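Entry 12.
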Amino acid sequence: MSRSVYYDYIDKHLHINAQRIIDGGKLNMLNLHMHSENFYLHFFNLLYGYELENLNDKLQNVEAIDLIDHKNKIIFQVSATSTKRKIESTLSKEIFKQYLDYTFKFISIAKDASELRSSTFKNPHAITFSPSQDIYDIVSILSNILTLSIFKQKEIYLLIKEELGGDVDIIKLDSNLATVINILANEKWDDANKIESVNLFEIDRKINHNDLDIAKAIVEEYCLFYEKVNSKYSEFDRLGSNKSNSVLATIKREYIKFKGENNADKIFLTIIERIKERILESANYQEIPIDELELCIDILVVDAFIRCKIFENPDNYKYAST
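Predicted 3D structure (tokens):
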């Protein structure tokens, strides 16, 4: 997934959440506000490296302060009301006398706060507060996210997908994996297309070396399609360099995630399920009957097994027939 796709997803869902709060109405506002407090707690801890905790979890209904970071000496108010009057009312609260060495920050969870960042405020307790830096809204947050590395954007994307992505379709992306499945789906996979171009003895050695039992039948059933898969990969690679390598790397990454499991059969079957999930979420997957999809995935994973991409190889393993 590219940096722009992560950013677009984050942008979209932050605005969806804001609109949900705006449309929530008074009856639901309290629950939405509590949800937003906890969301921004985890969000800002990840985005800015803070160590925020919800003050209301320890002291019920604390006025003016929602989140607090004792290490960095920061206090936050999370609010759907984004007005100068709201902020000045907050700054006037007596509780700020307990936090004079802290910095006050304000999060507008539903509305643009750009005008507020250029305003001046009455601050009777003289707590540290710089409107241009300490007032956040979606626009200012997104401008910070835009400059982050793709790895950091991915972390934020995963958090937002978990927290806010439930009410809309999860983003679907083009995938080389799905493209290969589309190619394989147009082929006949029957005994007439099996070619003994692999060393069955060597493959059996690898099966035994990895203690495969249930998966053994899958490997033995589809290993003879190796040559046909190889020709399909060659066809696919004509569309661009390293395309088949990206598919095999995707399967290998799934294996690496689970290789610590003790049960080799469970690992093999889990890889198949994870690859199926990835394909079903891809925008360029052309829908086929589920049994045909599962057949193609089995063939791909067995091929990766043969090619040394997943599971351990026995000594001097040579899968190609001579």
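Annotation: The two ends are 40 Å apart (CA to CA). Residues 3-167 form one domain.
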